Amino acid sequence: MATGEAEAAQRNDRLVEHLRSTGAVHDPAVADAFRAVLRHHFLPGLPLDEVYEDAAITVKTGELGATISSSSQPGIMAVMLEQLRLETGLRVLEVGAGTGYNAAVIAWLVRPDGHVVSLDIDEDLCARARAGLASAGTGGAEVVCADGAEGWPSGAPYDRIIVTAGARDLSPAWRDQLREGGRLVLPLELAGPVQLCVAFVRRGPALAGSELTCCGFLPLRGEMAAAGGQPDLEAAWLSGDGRPSGHAVPAADLRAGFEAWLALTHNDAVRARPLADRAPAFGLRDPHGAALLMVDGEHGRVAVFGEGDSAARRLAAAHQAWSVERPPLERLRVAAYPAGGEPRLLDGLRIIRRPSFTFVVGQR
Questions:
Q1: Number of helices (H), then strands (E), in the chain
Q2: Is 71 an annotated catalytic residue?
Q3: Whether 203 and 172 share a structural domain
Q4: What is the pTM of this model?
Q5: Do 169 and 227 form a contact (C-beta atoms < 8 A)?
Q6: Which of 10-14, 313-317, 341-345 is predicted with the least confidence, judged by mean pLDDT?
Q7: 184 three-state secondary structure
Q8: Catalytic residue (choose from 21, 69, 72, 135)
Q9: Other CB atoms closer than 10 Å to residue 335's CB: what's the count?
Q10: Residue at which a domain ends, from 181, 206, 226
């Protein structure tokens, strides 16, 4: 092995041990796949110190300098790959080729008889991914330039589908091209900015989801870029700092999962777009106004906007209930039904309607 390759392999081994020690990797097969596929083949020209950090790396920016494609953080890659439950011989569709690194790890896990089709909307990214796969000597993976919203019908049905960009809805094509009992894993924005990696299993026309994990991915582009959802409260709607409610929440709780839990379990949860000098605020809304948690030093004070204090009382009660057990997101489950084809009676903590699917959040 050349000196450069040997050094890269050593750094990669340390990365894999980091993934194991942090709990991102539990499955020995996934650990072996990360050991076998060296990331620097997909990020040529970058220092090995940067390549083998457990961090996302920007690979393409837009005209204004915003990141539009990146090599995902290995830690969250590992979480999603374990959610996929990959086995030898499976057919996999990946939406979002990026550098090709994730496709290479998947191809290793489904070898020797499995196959990966990786889609990307940008031809230059597709060319880069193909070059990376060739450099790494990866077989069993092909890269296709296409809008992932349509899937890739010629390779269907797939045993697994993974989407490596944030979505607010599911594409009907993903469900249709997934075999019965197959798994779909993607970052899904169900409520405000809270993005979750959800593992869905196809059950007829619907999908049953569990294994929720907080994550952060760049949004999908193309047809799915504008998939709808409830807008945040406009900053213009907020008048000053609101009225004090007398309720306060430790700032640490705001970072410990309370926002995600509130957003996923309350139909009237809202998030306010921040003013220039203010951090984002979130809370509950009712017909008379809203109560928002706003960070102020070590506390999140509850401010009231509009009339009445009912939203503030309910927000304080929701925090009190959450703080007793601090329930993890793993206690929640998500079901996705085709819009218009959902059961007549939907029962759950929260019902979220999007153009193509209706999502029902419940507890296990």
A1: 10, 17
A2: no
A3: yes
A4: 0.87
A5: yes
A6: 341-345
A7: strand
A8: 69
A9: 21
A10: 226
Q: Does 230 score more than 50 pLDDT?
A: no
Neighbours of 307 (CB within 10 A): 11
d(CA 215, CA 110): 25
Q: Which two tokens stand for residue 173?
A: 């094509």
- Span 181-212, pLDDT tens digits: 999 999 998 876 678 899 999 999 999 987 78
295 and 205 co-located in one domain: no
CATH number at residue 198: 3.40.50.150
Alpha-carbon separation of residue 243 from 68, 93, 149, 295 (angstroms): 40, 51, 45, 14
Kindly report the number of other CB atoms within 10 A of residue 3's CB atom: 7
Q: Within this chain, do residues 210 and 269 fall inside the same structural domain, yes or no?
A: no
Question: Which residue would you say has higher pLDDT here, 48 or 306?
Answer: 48
Quick check: is 85 in a domain?
yes
- Greater model confidence, 329 or 299: 329
Query: Any idea what DSSP says for residue 211?
Result: E
* Residue 292: strand pairing partners: 283, 303
